[in-house]
Amino acid sequence: MGCGRVDILPNSSMVYYVVGKFTDIADKVVPFFHKYPVIGVKSLDFKCFVQVAELINNKAHLDPEGLEQIRKIKSEMNTLRVNS
């Protein structure tokens, strides 16, 4: 992708892909997964991820209401999802 790094957890077989720059997320990661969609329940998490990226891009994370909206979206991701 031309950005990020691969991290391996010590004493584990877990591998993580970490992207630290928001511009890389917005300009490379999100378009990549729009072109090559995530399949299954993780596609719902990707939709949430994109919502948060859009909020951050619009600077909503800088005010309390926007930050709370991001927290709400986060609470609905991964194993915390109540329904699909």
Helix proportion = 40-55%
* Count of helical regions: 3
Return residue spans where pLDDT drops below 50 for at least 5 consecutive residues. Answer: none
Give the overall silhouette.
globular
What's the order of the H and E elements? EEHHH
Amino- and carboxy-terminal Cα gap: 29 Å
Which structural class fits the helix and strand makeup?
mainly alpha
How much of the sequence is in beta strands? 5-15%
Give the mean pLDDT: 91
Strands, count: 2
Folded structure, characterized:
The protein is mainly α and 84 residues long. It has a domain at 37-84. The protein has three helices and two strands; from the N terminus they run ββααα. It has helices at residues 22-35, 42-57, 64-75; strands spanning 5-8, 15-18. A two-stranded antiparallel ribbon has the order 1-2. The N and C termini lie far apart (29 Å).
